[in-house]
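pinned: reference chain
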Amino acid sequence: MYDGSAGFDLPDAIRLGRSLSEADYLWYEEPIREFSISAYQRLAETVDVPLLVAETSDGAHMNAADFIRSGAATFGVRAGTTLRGGITGAMRTAHLADAYRLRAEVHGSDIPNHHLCMAISNTTYYESLVTSVNVVRERHVDAQGLVHAPVGPGIALPLDFDYGDELLPYVEQPY
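pinned: its structure tokens
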């Protein structure tokens, strides 16, 4: 997979997309800013590498529908609680993609997104945020690269803080 992080204009996105097609990449994600669905439509018509789109675009599931309808989402769309309108918006995005037999790949390194991975059937990969040159595996991702279902009930408090004894029953438990 290749995530362009909106770093290209359309001509450069096409050029790179052709190379990714030749290299048999699984998907090409967000190579250009997601303001122009017609630009993504043109990209989809020009490259063979499947496109994963609608990660940072406004409009949550409503906007994802436009990407899908235009033919620009040739692999699928991003789903995540942070950028897709919370749990409800992410679920709507996932169900919409599923109706078109597309993927809804989860984006976001927080507890609600770990739950989301378990709640939708058309996700296959979890995007873990890498914030430094030294890649450190998130504690929710095991040595085989899998995200496990939370073991406690509900959406827990993050493990990283000292809450005090009275809140310990509500803190996430490692898998």
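why pinned: The longest helix spans residues 86-99. DSSP finds five helices and six strands in the chain.
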